[in-house]
Amino acid sequence: MNTQQIESFSVLKMKSLDQIAPEAINGALIQAEARLEIWQKKSYYERVAMLARVADQMSDKTGQLSLLIALEIDKLLAQSHEEITLM
C-alpha cells in the first residue's frame, strides 16, 4: 500500500465480501502474490525501514484505524484506540 492509498483510506468506502465480484478478489490475490515476491527479494534492512514507515503512518491514522477495529471485531472505540496507541 503506498502513501496515497493510506491517505485516501476511509472506513465508509469499505464493502462487505458479498459486494465484491469474484474476479476482483482473484485479481487482488494475484496482485498480492506478485507483491509478496517483490517483498521477499528486499533485504532485511529494506524491510525494517518499510515497516518503520508503516508504524509512523499508523500513529498518524489512529482515529481511522480505531474505528476500523471497532467495526471489524466489535470492540469499543476506546479499546481499539488504546490498542493502536500501544503499537
Written account of the structure:
This protein is an all-alpha fold. The protein is built from five helices and no strands. The relative contact order is 0.10. Pfam families: Aldedh (PF00171).
Outline of this structure?
The chain has 87 residues and is mainly alpha-helical. The chain has helices spanning 3-7, 22-41, 44-60, 62-73, 77-86.
Number of strands: 0
Helix count equals: 5
Mean pLDDT: 78
SSE order, one letter for each helix or strand? HHHHH
GO molecular function: oxidoreductase activity
Organism: Mucilaginibacter lappiensis
Pfam families: Aldedh
Keywords: Oxidoreductase
Could you name the key traits of this structure?
oxidoreductase, Ald_DH_N, 74% helix, mainly alpha, Ald_DH/histidinol_DH, 5 helices, 87 residues
Q: What topology emerges from the helices and strands here?
A:
Elements: H1 3-7, H2 22-41, H3 44-60, H4 62-73, H5 77-86
Helix pairs in contact: 4-5
GO molecular function: oxidoreductase activity
Pfam families: Aldedh (PF00171)
Domain Aldehyde dehydrogenase: 15-85
